[in-house]
Model the fold of this input.
Amino acid sequence: MKTVIIGAGLAGLAAAYRLAESDEIVIIEREPEPGGMASSYSINTPDTGAYHIEEYYHHIFAGDKELIALIDELGLGDRLEWQRGTTGYYFNGRIYPMNTPFEILRALPLVDVIRLTLLVLRAKAIKDRSPYDNMTAREWIYDTAGESVYNNFFEPLLQSKFGDNKEKVSAAWLLGRVQIRSNRGTKGERLGYMRGGFNALIEAMADNIRKKGGKIVNGTVSQIEVADGSVQGVVVDKEHIRCDRVISTVVPRVLEKIIDTGLLGHNLDISYQGTACALFGLTERIMDDIYWLNIKEDVPFGAVIEHTNFIPASDYGEHLMYATSYFQSPDSVLWRSSDEEVIELYLGGLEKLFPGFREKVKWWRLRRDMDTAPVYEVGYGKKILPYVTGIKGLYLAGMFSQANYPERSMNGSVVAGFKCAEAVKEGK
Ligand SMILES: Cc1cc2nc3c(=O)[nH]c(=O)nc-3n(C[C@H](O)[C@H](O)[C@H](O)COP(=O)(O)OP(=O)(O)OC[C@H]3O[C@@H](n4cnc5c(N)ncnc54)[C@H](O)[C@@H]3O)c2cc1C
Done:
């Protein structure tokens, strides 16, 4: 049986990894290299030598069980390290560390801290989140903890994550996030990272698939061909490829273009937001021991992530920092402008927060994509796409899958890919 997988991101690679032994597998990827959103830059400067660093900042959580097991299975377990991921908030012209209950107490009024603690306890006690899919996060926070907790704590977080869509986000999403992220202990949360970069995971998966006979081919799928309710093949750069099954990992907006949605019978109207993420190579560190800084200030990015305050700069021979923003529309200046213009905009904001920043920049890179995260708005729970569709031989895995709710992640995409592989094996 021949299976075509559309997309060599983690979902596509995970499905292929599980199927390549038993099936004839062809992954079609429109970019020259596999990896999708988890791809890395290869940096090579005369003073640092060669290394890999993620194009979008990445770390993992202790609960990412399937991904951790996969890293072990591929013999890469010794590269996975758990470090304290220090966080902070920039507001009123200064940085407030936000790692421990004591630090949060210093940044927020006591009454807000008490209300926030009660909100977290209440969120953790809710087992069935589905009724909260119909109400906004803002409504629930107002009802549970009041306006001040929303304004002082949640609003800046929601702003940096969802921008203009922040008031559309559902309470079910918020509850899911609080339940996952609130077990930080008194010293702050530990985050996982593969020393040398997650690129090693992508390469190991791709090698493993090829060794088992699978192929990873560069091309763009423009159509999934369906006849009599069954998959017949795909069209790749005008060439017809016959196959028995297709696993599609592309976002709904692309899926809509390559299949007759009437046949698919699912609502593909899922809003996504884009990301514009700059990475700077620096001569010096910028912040004292803060990895992740959320920002409530009038600058064109929502967070600054100093990677080398998480992983030592000695691994790279220089300091690395991301500045990043989500954007909600193709009309955004972050999408319309040239790379140089976006970098100039970001540099202006960075200079405002960290005077003298410009002089420390050795080089920069910018990655931008339109569809980098679903907007988990009211009603999103009902739009999650199934692994197995009504079209015989068509499977779906990606950021829109159940495994990627309430937050899309590398683990979620690996699980989604595995779920499709299981369904294929079971002949569903
Ligand atoms: C800014 C940012 C930060 C993140 N941080 C983290 C983090 O810290 N931790 C974490 O776990 N996760 C993080 N993620 C999420 C994680 O990277 C993604 O959830 C995961 O990599 C998605 O994998 P995927 O295979 O589902 O989708 P993708 O990686 O998007 O893969 C889909 C692939 O399909 C290809 N494709 C699209 N259309 C076609 C076509 N017509 N024909 C052929 N190929 C096509 C694309 O090029 C792409 O390679 C982050 C993501 C972003 C954007």
